[in-house]
Amino acid sequence: VGNEAEYVSFDLRPSDAINIAVRCKVPIQVNKYLAYSDGMRVIESGKLSTQFPGMDGRLFTEMDRPSGQPCSETTEFNLLHNMLKAVVEERYKDAALFRDQLNQLRAGKNMKNRYEAYLT
Amino acid sequence: MSSVQGPVVCPSVRAKQVGFCSIPMIGAVKMNVRRIRSEFWGLNGAKAKPGFLSCRINTRKYKTVHCTFNSPSNDSGSTADNFNEKDEDYVNSSVIEAVEVKSGADGFIIKMRDGRHLRCVHNNPQGGHLPDYAPHPAIVLKMEDGTGLLLPIIVLEMPSVLLMAAIRNVPIARPTLYQVVKEMIDKMGYEVKLVRVTRRVHEAYFAQLYLTKACTLYTPSPGWGGTSGKR
User: Fold this and answer.
1) CA-based angle B183:B22:B12, to the nearest 5?
2) Where do the TM regions start and end (chain A) (predicted)?
């Protein structure tokens, strides 16, 4: 009869060991002295207020000239503009049509963002 | 501020030591390989082997009295340290959803998955100043003993992404390395019991995976080895 108290242990990289532990739903333990010597304590939590200058420069250069490509923001803005104009001119049937198209566009955009978030 | 204490290794009663230390497999590399191989085929060692292993464990246990923490292993050719196996030396921890860590003029910053940033300081002031480095993907463990310490472990990008997917139960189309390993462990009749992050050597951390045999329904005979019978 096999001894149930016998353990078999393997040496792994921490990344592989922690991944297997999460998938098998078993506890993860850390050496106490290791945690004390290498551990970190949180002193502040929140949004980082400092901005990166490279990001600002890149944003400015990107927004300086039109790219000439049809973008979803322009389509959304045009739909919104047409809807509001139809409301002012009391063409309510056209306004409802534009509203449905706008909702469809926004729903599609949300799905696309979710898929992109999953890929990253 | 919690004080840092060195490990105290006290030899206790011999019988108690042997009984307690026989749980983990300690020994030379060849012994480990041989025993692991026999375990996989369902065979246990001969009657003489447990006694021999106990002697090895006993000898190793006495040797550790002269070791200090983070000292290299006495076993030549093996960089893994097996003497610090007591349960009270380990703290349960959980994985927090951290994406990357970086060290700079603002201090140590942990970027969470939801966009928050945690600014941290070193727990051990004598540990020295951390060098500045660019953002790296990391796995951050949070201690569950009440201290709230965080232990960041810098890893490659793929394990970090797969860990986030595992935490969020995101189904991935193709099987990953970890799913294959998990299925192999299940097929061979073992189950995962524990994962421990044991020590650090220079800049690399070491971890151990503990398995136990899950099936005890049959009695293996001496001539049973060599064939993989039904479970």
Assistant:
1) 140
2) none
